[in-house]
Amino acid sequence: MSERLATALSAAKQAAARYRGNIVRSSDLVRKDRELLIRKGWLREIFKGWYYLTRPDLADGDTTAWFSNYWDFIRIYLEHRYRKNYCLSADASFDLQVGKNLFPKQLIIIVPDGGTVTTLPCDTQIITYADPKNIPEDRIEIKGLQVMPLSLAICKIVPVYFRECSEDVEIALRSIISSNEIIRNILKYGFYRAAERILGAYHALGMLQQEKDLDEALLQEGKKIHPINPFEKTMPQLKKRNYLSPSAARIELLWARYRDVIINEFPKASGLPKNSAEYMERVDDLYKFDAYNSLSIEGYQVTEELIEKVKNSQWDPINNTEDNNTKNALAARGYYEAFQSVKESLEKIFSGISPGLCVEQDLATWYKNLFMPAVRGAIIKLADISGYRTSQVYIRNSFHVPPPKEAIMDAMETFFRCLKEEEEASVRAVLGHYIFVYIHPYMDGNGRTARFILNTMLASGGYPWTIVQVKNRKQYIDALETAHTKSDIIDFTKYIIDELHQSEEYFK
Fold first, then answer.
1. CA neighbours closer than 13 Å in the CB half-sphere of residue 424
2. Among 103, 94, 101, 254, which Cα is nearest to 162's?
3. How far apart are CA 208 and CA 4, in angstroms?
4. Cβ contacts of residue 203 below 8 Å, gap of 6+?
5. Which pairing describes strands 23-25 and 50-53: parallel, antiparallel, or unpaired?
6. Which of 20, 113, 182, 380 is most buried (most C-beta within 10 Å)?
């Protein structure tokens, strides 16, 4: 059976390699191999005739395997059906180019003939509709897909986009350096209703030169267009900086949008603790409870006895084989070492160093200490925990996809800048945690690191050290997902406030 399974798996890998991904068609495998791989959990059905390779140890309902293969499947399926004679809809084309980090529940594609609604795993669909005359000649390729250029997509997106996705529209308009591309599409296709919205958007955003250029071009065409403000309210504007990625611009806009919500909900900060030594003693007293909850949230089977063993240096990975091979013990020891470095950062903050600057300077040390026991045990290499991630990551059971690796440096620079410029400790705490997990700059350890940021920023305002408890894990994860997918920080803010109030009892 093992030999048969290995042979079948090898055949599937070879078939998938031809498509440059992990996607397999039923016709690529002989029936007995396909049925064996499905039965053993190595192959999962997308829909009839299409499969993706995965691992049998992943739990049912885990979205990670599907979402890591999602865009490859879309590319391969569309190439198989239409070669390159198709185009993603204006909305889908637009979302791909403004760094909208969500998997679409419905992906709409313009095709030359036919038209179907196809249900895919994890409550996703692709909808194809036949409209050969409206497949644009000017197309670009992103993720191997045929999409509309951003300057065309912004002319074709529905008006509600300007109201409900105002940050996306601002990012798009500021990303299109020259208004000439938009002007060309408006005049070529007669998008004069779109011109009303775009003129109004330019004016609302203070992009007066672009507004003037578009207005003059329309007048030369004999069209007098009256601009309308397409936004529901005055928008926070991006500062005039050069962003290397739309992800960085989005972080600044999210920060500006969410800060007032957090300030209005959060109890007022009292300022730096008057007795920092007493504060640090209380933090030490909470260590075991903090470590148990933070590690358990990430899925480690950590007991208080194990934490105590690690704390008291009774854990010996060199002379004890069981310790050396225990993932949980490595995680617990790493958490202890990182916790000590976080305490050193707290001391700096209490001495008057800028909280945001302190996090910027010390974050890499916290992160390395989380994994140094695994480095010393030769389980991972030091190079693996030096710097930010170098590949795409996916968050289990989330429709949010973190920014691509190429955007990480720019996104983190923006994150640190926002953190340093923010005056309210409550905003630094809530958004310090949220934006960090939004970026997900590391391959592992993002949640633990985010909770360290949360607490150092809370401490900088005199709030108690706050435990995100594993018993409330679902509420915690759901609140983060709401912020990711619905652009609403209120649930996450209230969740942190609830945990803060519970932690006050432990902190007394």
1. 17
2. 94
3. 68
4. 211, 227, 229
5. antiparallel
6. 182
Beta carbons of 451 and 468 less than 8 angstroms apart: yes
Q: How far is CA 494 from CA 140, 297, 340, 419, 487, in A?
A: 43, 19, 29, 20, 15
Give the pLDDT of residue 311: 54
For the chain, which ranges sit under pLDDT 50? Answer: 302, 306, 310, 315, 317-318, 324-325
Which pLDDT score is estimated for 378? 80
Q: In the prediction, which pLDDT does 168 show?
A: 92
Q: H helices then E strands: how many in the chain? A: 22, 9
**Residue 319 confidence (pLDDT):** 55
Residue 227 tokens, joined:
């601009």
CATH superfamily of 246-507: Fido-like domain (1.10.3290.10)
DSSP state letter for 232: S
Domain edges within the chain: 2-57, 68-148, 152-235, 246-507
Q: pLDDT value at position 26?
A: 93
Report, in angstroms and rounded to the nearest whole number, the Rg of the chain calculated over CA atoms: 26
Give the helix/strand (H/E) hosting 75.
helix 64-82
First to last CA, the chain: 61
- The structure tokens listed for 459 are 């401490």
Give the integer Cα–Cα distance in Å for 367 and 342. Answer: 10
Which pLDDT tens digit goes with each residue over 190-214?
A: 999 999 999 999 999 989 999 999 9
Answer positive or negative: Cα dihedral of 155, 161, 166, 167: negative
Give the amino acid at 339. Answer: F
* CA pair distance 308, 318, nearest whole angstrom: 19
